């Protein structure tokens, strides 16, 4: 096995750049990829950190040798303070058991009926837009997509109407996740148990989310019927060996994971889709013409999407440029070798889809928004990983893709969205990629 540690920035450079790295981690990861290549190594407080930017290295860690790595990293430990040990943050046998349990909720038969939930929720939003469009009043598309996707995931996975609580839940979600990022970037921040204004705000947000989840479970149990959805599957689950049901904590953690991961990530991707279409109106016209040619004025269904390839390519390209889950981390359980370089035991391995998606070897003119590049797809299967890869591929990736395409098609039939600010929008790399300060847009009827 190679003993060659990957090239990378020196300790002196890292110390000098600490404030910049904390405030703009993506720029740092992009820079070292350009300077040092597909595998980059450095040390932080004695911990070896390996950034893998080449698709072959991604394949090695996330697929070929995935058992050599786990999720015991700062990223997932921080997320677990909100989601608990659900599918997103768990590992090993508990993760596999829960994955098998949840999989039927994302079956082909269920996905084929997704339009029955997505379209009514989207049309309710569009109705609310009408007076705003008439008055020329901008809307924050970031907030709109958050509320819409929360309602959809609530109805699709838990048979719950969250429209009344959407504002409070989305606000609590962002508060909780933003606090996680703040703590990760500020290692000397005061512990969570100290009642600082930020910590108190985090506690209130977590209380709001816990209350929403507890109410879902209580309502279902009162009916005496578990229901034929993901919540019902969790409530009916039994351990194959002991016959024990899931604990209240396990149920809470899985619901919280699906509720947060199932709406915040899709909302981020949709927000950036509208931003990109506003800056490249010719692509919006192409997709809208296709939608109107195929559908006329009737709403899209899941079965229509294969006849709307331009919509699919627009969303795929938005995911390439702004992958919501912009960083994936793993802990090396044992010594390994990637592309000829040594990965020490216990090293932190960092894979950034944002950086991988900008490798010019696989994506010509990578910074350009060009949906047509998906006519043929990526030159390397692991050069495009917006939903991760390998066994830990996001369980809801098909759900998210169909949901987003249905929303895009329906909105395009009725509106063109124009950015209020002509200059480029500043991006915040938080738990997901979000536009700084929201994304105000004007609605123009078409």
Notes on the protein architecture:
It is globular and about 60 Å long. The protein has one domain: Cytochrome P450 (Cytochrome p450, Orthogonal Bundle), CATH 1.10.630. It is 52% helix and 11% strand. The chain has 446 residues and is of the alpha+beta class. It has a 5-stranded mixed β-sheet. The chain has a 3-stranded antiparallel β-sheet with strand order 4-12-9. α8 runs antiparallel to α9 and α13 crosses α17. The protein has 17 helices and 12 strands. Belongs to the cytochrome P450 family. Pfam families: p450. InterPro entries: Cyt_P450, Cyt_P450_CS, Cyt_P450_E_grp-I, Cyt_P450_sf, Cytochrome_P450_Monoox. Keywords: Heme, Iron, Metal-binding, Monooxygenase, Oxidoreductase. Its cofactor is heme.
Question: How are the elements arranged and paired?
Answer:
Elements: H1 11-16, H2 18-23, H3 25-36, E1 39-44, E2 47-52, H4 55-64, E3 69-70, H5 74-83, H6 92-102, H7 108-111, H8 115-135, E4 139-140, H9 141-158, H10 166-185, H11 197-223, H12 230-236, H13 248-279, H14 281-295, H15 309-321, E5 328-332, E6 336-338, E7 341-343, E8 348-351, H16 353-356, H17 397-414, E9 415-419, E10 427-429, E11 433-435, E12 440-445
Parallel strand pairs: 2-8
Antiparallel strand pairs: 1-2, 3-5, 4-12, 5-8, 6-7, 9-12, 10-11
Helix pairs in contact: 5-10, 8-9, 8-17, 9-10, 9-13, 10-11, 13-14, 13-15, 13-17, 14-15, 14-17
């Amino acid at each position: 096995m190679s003993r060659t540690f990957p090239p990378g920035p020196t300790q002196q450079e890292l110390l000098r750049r600490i404030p910049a790295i904390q405030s703009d981690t993506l720029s740092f990861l992009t820079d070292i990829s350009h300077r040092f290549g597909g595998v980059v190594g450095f040390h932080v407080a004695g911990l070896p950190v390996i950034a893998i930017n080449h698709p072959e290295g991604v394949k090695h860690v996330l697929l070929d040798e995935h058992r050599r790595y786990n999720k015991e990293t700062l990223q997932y430990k921080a997320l677990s303070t909100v989601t608990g040990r659900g599918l997103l943050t768990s590992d090993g046998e508990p993760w596999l058991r829960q994955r098998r349990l949840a999989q039927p909720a994302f079956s082909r038969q269920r996905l084929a009926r997704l339009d029955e939930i997505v379209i009514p929720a989207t049309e309710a939003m569009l109705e609310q837009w009408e007076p705003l469009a008439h008055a020329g009043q901008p809307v924050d598309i970031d907030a709109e997509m958050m509320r819409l996707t929360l309602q959809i995931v609530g109805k699709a996975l838990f048979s719950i109407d969250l429209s009344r609580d959407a504002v409070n839940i989305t606000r609590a979600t962002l508060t909780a996740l933003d606090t996680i990022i703040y703590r990760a970037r500020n290692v000397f921040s005061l512990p969570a148990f100290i009642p600082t204004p930020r910590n108190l705000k985090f506690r209130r947000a977590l209380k709001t989310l816990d209350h929403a989840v507890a109410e879902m479970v209580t309502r279902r149990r009162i009916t005496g019927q578990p229901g034929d959805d993901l919540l019902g599957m969790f409530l009916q689950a039994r351990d194959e060996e002991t016959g024990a049901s899931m604990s209240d904590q396990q149920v809470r953690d899985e619901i919280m994971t699906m509720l947060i991961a199932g709406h915040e990530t899709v909302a981020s991707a949709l927000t950036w889709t509208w931003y990109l279409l506003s800056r490249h109106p010719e692509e919006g016209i192409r997709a809208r013409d296709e939608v109107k040619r195929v559908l006329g004025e009737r709403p899209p269904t899941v079965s229509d999407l294969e006849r709307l390839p331009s919509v699919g390519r627009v969303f795929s390209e938005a995911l390439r440029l702004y992958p919501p889950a912009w960083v994936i981390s793993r802990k090396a359980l044992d010594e390994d070798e990637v592309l000829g370089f040594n990965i020490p035991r216990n090293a932190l391995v960092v894979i950034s889809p944002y950086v991988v998606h900008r490798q010019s070897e696989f994506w010509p003119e990578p910074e350009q928004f060009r949906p047509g590049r998906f006519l043929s797809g990526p030159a390397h299967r692991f050069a495009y990983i917006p939903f991760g890869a390998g066994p830990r591929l996001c369980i809801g990736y098909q759900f998210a893709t169909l949901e987003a395409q249905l929303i895009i098609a329906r909105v395009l039939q009725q509106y063109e969205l124009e950015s209020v600010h002509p200059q480029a929008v500043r991006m915040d790399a938080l738990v997901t990629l979000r536009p700084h300060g929201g994304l105000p847009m004007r609605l123009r009827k078409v």
